[in-house]
Amino acid sequence: MGAGRTAAVLAALGVLSVCEASGSRPVAEGEAGGAVEWAEPWDGAVFRPPSALGAVGVARGPGTPRPGSGEAVDLPVLLWWSPGLFPHFPGDSERIECARGACVASRDRRVRGDSRTRALLFYGTDFRASEAPLPRLAHQSWALLHEESPLNNFLLSHSPGIRLFNLTATFSRHSDYPLPLQWLPGTAYLRRAAPPLPERADWRRRGYAPLLYLQSHCDVPADRDRYVRELMRYIPVDSYGKCLKNRELPTPRLQDTATATTEDPELLAFLSRYKFHLALENAICDDYMTEKLWRPMHLGAVPVYRGSPSVRDWVPNNHSIILIDDFESPQKLAEFIDFLDKNDEEYMKYLAYKQPGGITNQFLLDSLKQREWGVNDPLLPNYLNGFECFVCDHELARLDAEKAYAASPGDIPVLEPHIAQPSHMDCPVPTPGFGSVEDIPENDSRSLILAINHCICLRFLWPFRER
Ligand SMILES: *[C@@H]1O[C@H](CO)[C@@H](O)[C@H](O)[C@H]1NC(C)=O
Ligand SMILES: *[C@@H]1O[C@H](CO)[C@@H](O)[C@H](O)[C@H]1NC(C)=O
Ligand SMILES: *[C@@H]1O[C@H](CO)[C@@H](O)[C@H](O)[C@H]1NC(C)=O
């Protein structure tokens, strides 16, 4: 199909105008204000240094030794291309010590052309193809940190987008530096005792619904609000966030999202009054799981979950969450929740993993044990510094391999390029949360429609851009 004809077909579908209007961030408007919002992971500031740090510190060239840090002249340099993510303070460069040796981490873009600058590090949410440092230098690896969902950058869920990079740290288990458990501090977090059932029964008698919904980021491509709205027709749901709100949090302090964060103990105590929490991710990608999955378990509630299609691989045992997609309709799901709500013995089976030996998923246990970074763990690096060292070690190994090859080219094979794969960001085109696309009223689920169009549009346009 020629480019002209494709354009005509797309125009007929009304797709081209959407592409142009939406740029590379089709659904970002919802977050424009950047307001703190308890229900969304990327506002949690798990590792992001406050932006004020960016302005502080004395500029220091990467070759300049830091006091007490020894000579840094010949060390490989890792350049953080994304502003604001540089995980060191103060200054613009820092010697880092990793398993294989040392590197210099820098955010001074002037070193970009230096032969010692071996890797450029990008943050996925900020990455714009049009702002990429081109031409690309043959001796440099590109490393991508993108732990968020594609909601924040659809470009990277497309094969040519992800394949721009050599190394990745994403939510996917297939990534070079995998972060699927980025929201799970550890098994103790899951094992925390649940509130006694009579206490919950008491709240139910006082008019609480069996189900909680706490969501303030409305109208996302995963189309969760339409599903929940339909579910509400068959079972009571108490909704406290901006989306489908039908109740107020009990105190003004909790209502104010600027003072009560997701981890606020008073908020958590309140949420734990509910037996079931609706837990729907903002995008559906393999291995993309957030605190929406783990927090209800921590609080002793049963997550009613839609998100990573492979979530079963990660949960503590085979009877610990309710998967929305196991039910043919919101009505059937409502009937099942109602059954569990009235049947304590069946309900408690969902919390059996809290008993000694109850976490039987060996894959989960092994994955937690093997990861080298921690979640708010003072004894372990966070994954930002962890990934930086991973890249440093990779580059030191690559340098050694290059040297070995240069010394005896006949005996040693040429180093194969290492290129990121689409499986590192596996997010299919979004589908309606409920019903079919044709049935969605025009004034509803705008971001789902935009996302679908945007995906179709990237798919069509990439081949032509590549040439
Ligand atoms: C779930 O685990 C239990 C106990 O390990 C086992 O008996 C049961 O067969 C498993 N069920 C499924 C569906 O895997
Ligand atoms: C990095 O990836 C690009 C493709 O995006 C590839 O051309 C290049 O050879 C790779 N470099 C290394 C060092 O693997
Ligand atoms: C869409 O419009 C219909 C008819 O005006 C209205 O009843 C419905 O509430 C609207 N839906 C949304 C999601 O705004």
Automatic annotation (TrEMBL):
Pathway: Protein modification; protein glycosylation. The keyword Hydrolase does not apply. Its main location: endoplasmic reticulum. The keyword Membrane applies. Residues 77-180 form the Fucosyltransferase N-terminal domain. It is a single-pass type II membrane protein. It catalyses: L-threonyl-[protein] + GDP-beta-L-fucose = 3-O-(alpha-L-fucosyl)-L-threonyl-[protein] + GDP + H(+); L-seryl-[protein] + GDP-beta-L-fucose = 3-O-(alpha-L-fucosyl)-L-seryl-[protein] + GDP + H(+). GO terms for cellular component: endoplasmic reticulum membrane; Golgi membrane. Residues 1-21 form the signal peptide. One of its GO terms (molecular function) is alpha-(1->3)-fucosyltransferase activity. It is found in: Endoplasmic reticulum membrane. Residues 213-356 form the Fucosyltransferase C-terminal domain. Its EC number is 2.4.1.-. InterPro entries: Alpha-1_3-FUT_met (IPR017176), Glyco_tran_10_C (IPR055270), Glyco_tran_10_N (IPR031481), Glyco_trans_10 (IPR001503), GT10-like_C_sf (IPR038577). Keywords: Disulfide bond, Endoplasmic reticulum, Glycoprotein, Glycosyltransferase, Membrane, Signal, Signal-anchor, Transferase, Transmembrane, Transmembrane helix. Pfam families: Glyco_tran_10_N, Glyco_transf_10. Protein O-fucosyltransferase that specifically catalyzes O-fucosylation of serine or threonine residues in EMI domains of target proteins, such as MMRN1, MMRN2 and EMID1. Attaches fucose through an O-glycosidic linkage. O-fucosylation of EMI domain-containing proteins may be required for facilitating protein folding and secretion. May also show alpha-(1,3)-fucosyltransferase activity toward the innermost N-acetyl glucosamine (GlcNAc) residue in biantennary N-glycan acceptors. However, this was tested with a library of synthetic substrates and this activity is unsure in vivo. Belongs to the glycosyltransferase 10 family. This is GDP-fucose protein O-fucosyltransferase. The gene is FUT11.
